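Continuing from the previous page of notes. For each protein in this section, the sequence appears first, followed by its structure tokens. Read the first protein now.
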Amino acid sequence: MTDPSAPGHRRLRRAGLALAAVVLAAGAVVLSLTFFSSRDTPSVDPVAGPGEAFADQGARVLAPGERHPVYDSAPPTSGPHVRRAVGRDGASLSDDQILTALAAGHGVVLYAGPTPPAGLRGVADGVAGPFSPALAGAGQAVVLGWRPGTRGIVALAWRHRLVVARADDPALRSFADFWLGRGSGG
């Protein structure tokens, strides 16, 4: 019989204890990941949020003159576009300007005529502050724009759209608060 205090036996015992510790630690990690991941809510998903969701059509920048694809939403919420910055809000916005703004993380709110509906500027300013070059550079602006034929107020974020009848609809502020700053990178 071997002596349990012999150096070789002690090394085997230490190795066995180290292996047991590793196995226990790995088991604890697996159990904790299983426990916590089963309790995740959809709000953790960067795609889940208020408004109607659309497929991600990418954010590829087109060369001037290159053909635009057929977008899966009108106005588009993602897709290849020619980079066109928004210089000011309250102007008529092209699809390229909308997609450039959305890809950068801005929110875009569209309405039918050249004048924003009552209360809309207050909502935009309340969420992000007045439009400025600094906000525009940081992807933190809520850009107001008009497009003929728009029905109601159409709020846009990357891959998402919300249509409301009036600026005082609480869903509009919730949409803008949730999506502001989440551009094409998530």
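Done with the first. The second protein uses the same format. Note its length before scrolling.
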Amino acid sequence: MIMKRRYSLPLLFLLLLQFSACRYSLRGISIPENVNTFYVSNFDNVADNVVPTLSLQFTQLLRDKIRNESRLNPDDTDPDIEFRGQITNFTVSSVAPQPGETSALNRLEIKIFVEFISNKDESENWKQPFSFFNDFPSDQDILEVQEELINIISAQLVEDVFNRAFTNW
């Protein structure tokens, strides 16, 4: 019995080590070895009718995503890579028209513009717009569902930016 425990602990450790090492290879993250730090500047709100807290919320989500899912460390003085951006559009529109000049669904769409700057290799720099939307029933007031929709849309936008930056998507 003691012999089995002696071998099972190292075996368990090796299995855990192997699975933790697969985390990044399964995601396909590609970060050059000389890149170790990042900085995400606060996204500016240039959209009409935008929720005032959206800029800070989106910025923090992107920072957290990079910090938690990459090996990069935050550095606001001399980062290897930088993210700058703006929230360019925040609109609610009608979709799925019905007879009688009504709509079955409304759509919240958020558009952002992101600039990726590599201070190690300028050929890696890029600028790109991103957008995502989510529909909700027209009988619901936007204020009732706004927070949930913003969370869903922001999470997808952060995922898209992360993928563009680190998986050559």
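What the second structure shows: Strands lie at 37-40, 44-45, 73-74, 81-98, 102-118, 126-137. Residues 49 and 144 are 16 Å apart (CA to CA). We return to this in next week's lecture.
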